[in-house]
């Protein structure tokens, strides 16, 4: 068997076909299947890796090739060495080893026998392709072997059509969840909704496919990378193609929509999330690492951009609002920060006002940059901020003083303030705002459907307030508003549950008779019971009716369902019987009197997981038609970039 090569980065990438079935985790981005699309003028790095497996089924007993070469040809043109093509110096040869499990070999995993690979590698950094069209990148290695990738620089219109883009991401949000949220938040008469969700009023609906580069299920990191960079990536990777080196920061990077927009137009950027700010969806706009868990460095990247590499000028977003104070406050208070710095101070030194509660947020001036960190970890959920407020004491203060965070804003407060600041500060330059309802996903993970749907309804309420605000200020026509998700969860509603009947049965099989399907599902009790004078039609009138939704996920740990709202705070469906065993069973304290549901995930899972489904894309504003139909997640990046007029090809062409 031949020595295998890998060109990661925006590169070639992939397998030599004979071994593809067993080696995809070693060669995530693969040359023979390798295709990458680029925005003209977008910065990217190239990482070349030549692999020599030392043991395992692919061992070849030869040292790795150190004399590999790499060429690029435009169209049918002559292939030029990479150094000549880009007018750059050759890169230094790097070497390392890594081990991996061949393909999905779970037997090898159990036996703990990974295969070892010797690597020789070079990286070329901060390159750009300007001329639209096809390019062929060829890695020649191993005395005559070669592997090719096709790169396509998309031919996009360069005229700017939108002044602003607001990208709402409902993390983990599917059409099924939107349908369920509509059912509990809006009233029907004779099968017709009397009010509509704001998303439902968007003129254009599309569908995006979320697959990552080397697995068909994504996490929020690689899906954020696809949405923000136009390049698919791997699980846990942010703004890079994952390489096999030890350093999680040296992976080949691709420039994000926020970075390109800011670099080329001077436009302003805002980032809002209900998650801890270092979490993947906010992080993906500025971080470049294959390890999303490098939280401290992620926070540093918001402020300082890429560290240790020459890249792009970045002077921080105008707005950064969310949770995750532990990456900001001093290590003396227990903060876990990059290089032990206090990031409240680092941001303040660069001219940010620092906001730590809702009162301060609402009264903050709109002409200054703002960092708003409102809790330790993820922010409190809509249900706990609005209905079961006594649970707010489960959140910790953003100051690090271990008191409760009782005065937290919601997504709507944060998003509207972000728009005020961005509008005022960006002037004619326009802005890009990403606003994430993060806990749709987080609550689906813990099977807390009520909280997840509350977050979804809050997202919709936020979109409604945003549309109204932009309409009032005359900015609606110049702003593209997108609402989408990064992946789904296998959630749906199959009927209703008589919770009183269910609780009254002792027998597990009898409890199941509490479930009403088809005609026995009846109508939603979330609108027809409770305080009928309650006028805010965006949310349920009653979160705790007798007849609730019969809902659930298709992949679970062992758990119980009693189908009533968890009034004491977010749920913990599964627990270890023995601490540290990683053997999760039904949490004996969760969902009393419920139906026992056998898990189907590996027993080390205490939560549900993401699923394959396509996710919806709602669009309104300039370029809205680009978002109709069925397409790939990366197309959202290209359509946003085109709408902002960010392609720098043809006229702008700078060499090659
Ligand atoms: C390969 O070598 C490494 C290091 O010596 C060892 O840990 C590993 O078990 C070996 N794998 C196989 C498949 O033999
Ligand atoms: C390539 O050729 C050199 C010189 O003939 C030889 O030493 C080396 O082992 C060859 N490598 C492979 C992988 O065949
Ligand atoms: C940057 O380089 C310094 C010094 O080598 C190192 O300590 C730090 O971890 C690096 N940071 C990143 C984000 O790569
Ligand atoms: C940060 O603080 C920890 C604990 O005091 C220490 O071990 C570590 O070396 C410090 N890191 C830096 C970069 O100063
Ligand atoms: C909110 O923040 C302001 C400004 O930092 C502070 O003065 C005030 O005490 C805070 N309020 C609460 C309830 O923590
Ligand atoms: C929160 O408050 C409730 C009642 O007000 C109390 O029972 C509970 O122990 C408190 N929890 C925490 C974490 O302080
Ligand atoms: C914008 O406001 C106008 C005037 O109040 C109204 O007629 C129109 O429907 C609003 N547009 C949207 C999209 O809400
Ligand atoms: C019912 O809702 C209305 C309107 O929101 C409110 O004024 C009233 O106090 C509520 N009544 C009860 C019993 O909660
Ligand atoms: C269902 O479980 C929740 C959370 O454990 C609990 O608060 C509630 O009382 C239970 N409902 C019934 C009907 O037993
Ligand atoms: Zn998730």
TrEMBL record:
Binding site for Mg(2+): 171, 279, 281, 436
Residue numbers spanned by region Disordered: 564-589
Pfam families hit by this protein: Alk_phosphatase (PF00245)
SUPFAM superfamilies membership: Alkaline phosphatase-like
SMART domains in the record: alkPPc (SM00098)
InterPro entries reported for this sequence: Alkaline_phosphatase, Alkaline_phosphatase_core_sf
Name by which UniProt lists this protein: alkaline phosphatase
């Amino acid at each position: 068997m031949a020595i295998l090569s890998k060109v990661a980065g925006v590169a070639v990438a992939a397998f030599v076909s004979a071994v593809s079935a067993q080696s995809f985790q070693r060669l995530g981005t693969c040359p023979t299947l390798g295709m990458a699309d680029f925005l003209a003028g977008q910065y990217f790095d190239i990482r070349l890796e030549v692999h020599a497996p030392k043991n395992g089924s692919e061992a070849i007993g030869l040292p790795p090739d150190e004399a590999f070469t790499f060429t690029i040809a435009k169209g049918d043109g002559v292939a030029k060495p990479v150094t000549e093509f880009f007018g750059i110096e050759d890169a230094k040869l790097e070497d390392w080893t890594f081990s991996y499990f061949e393909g999905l070999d779970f037997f090898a995993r159990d036996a703990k026998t990974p295969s070892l690979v010797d690597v020789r590698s070079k990286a070329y950094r901060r390159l750009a392709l300007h001329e639209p069209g096809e390019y062929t990148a060829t890695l020649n290695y191993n005395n005559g072997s070669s592997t090719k990738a096709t790169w396509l620089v998309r031919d996009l219109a360069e005229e700017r059509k939108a002044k602003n883009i607001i990208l709402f991401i409902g993390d983990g949000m599917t059409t099924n969840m939107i349908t369920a949220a509509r059912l509990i938040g809006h009233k029907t008469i004779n099968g017709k909704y009397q009010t509509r969700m704001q998303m439902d009023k968007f003129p254009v609906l599309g569908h995006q496919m979320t697959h990552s580069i080397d697995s068909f299920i994504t996490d929020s990191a690689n899906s954020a990378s696809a949405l923000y960079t136009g390049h698919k990536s791997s699980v846990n990777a942010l703004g890079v193609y994952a390489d096999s080196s030890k350093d999680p920061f040296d992976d080949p990077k691709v420039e994000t929509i926020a970075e390109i927009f800011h670099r080329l137009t001077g436009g302003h950027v805002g980032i809002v999330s209900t998650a801890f700010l270092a979490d993947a969806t906010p992080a993906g706009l500025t971080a470049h690492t294959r390890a999303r868990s490098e939280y401290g460095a992620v926070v540093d990247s918001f402020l300082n951009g890429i560290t240790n590499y020459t890249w792009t000028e970045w002077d921080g977003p105008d707005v950064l609002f969310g949770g995750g104070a532990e990456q900001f406050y001093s290590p003396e208070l227990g903060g876990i920060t990059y290089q032990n710095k206090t990031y409240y101070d680092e941001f303040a030194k660069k001219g940010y006002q620092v906001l730590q509660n809702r009162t301060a947020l609402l009264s903050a001036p709109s002409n200054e940059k703002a960092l708003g960190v409102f809790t330790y970890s993820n922010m409190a959920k809509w249900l706990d901020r609005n209905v079961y407020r006594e649970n707010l004491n489960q959140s910790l203060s953003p100051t690090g003083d271990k008191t409760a965070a009782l005065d937290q804003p919601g997504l709507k407060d944060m998003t509207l303030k972000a728009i005020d600041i961005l509008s005022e500060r960006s002037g004619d330059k326009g802005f890009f705002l990403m606003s994430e309802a993060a806990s749709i996903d987080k609550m689906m993970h813990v099977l807390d459907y009520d909280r997840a749907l509350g977050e979804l309804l809050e997202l919709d309420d936020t979109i409604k307030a945003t549309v109204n605000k932009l309409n009032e200020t005359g900015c609606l026509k110049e702003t593209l508003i997108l609402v989408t998700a990064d992946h789904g969860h296998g959630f749906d509603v199959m009927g209703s549950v008589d919770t009183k009947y269910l609780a009254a049965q002792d027998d597990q099989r009898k409890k199941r008779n509490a479930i009403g399907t088809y005609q026995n599902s009846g109508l939603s009790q979330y609108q027809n019971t409770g305080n009928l004078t309650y006028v805010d039609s965006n949310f349920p009138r009653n979160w705790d009716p007798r007849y609730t939704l019969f809902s659930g996920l298709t992949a679970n740990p062992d758990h119980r369902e009693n189908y009533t709202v968890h009034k004491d705070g977010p749920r913990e469906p599964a627990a270890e019987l023995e601490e540290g065993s990683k053997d999760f069973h039904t949490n004996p304290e969760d969902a009393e009197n419920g139906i026992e549901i056998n898990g189907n995930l590996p027993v080390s899972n205490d939560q549900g997981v993401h699923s394959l489904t396509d996710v919806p894309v709602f669009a309104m504003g300039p370029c809205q038609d680009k978002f109709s139909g069925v397409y790939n997640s990366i197309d959202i990046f290209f359509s946003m970039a085109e709408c902002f007029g960010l392609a720098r090809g043809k006229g702008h062409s700078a060499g090659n």
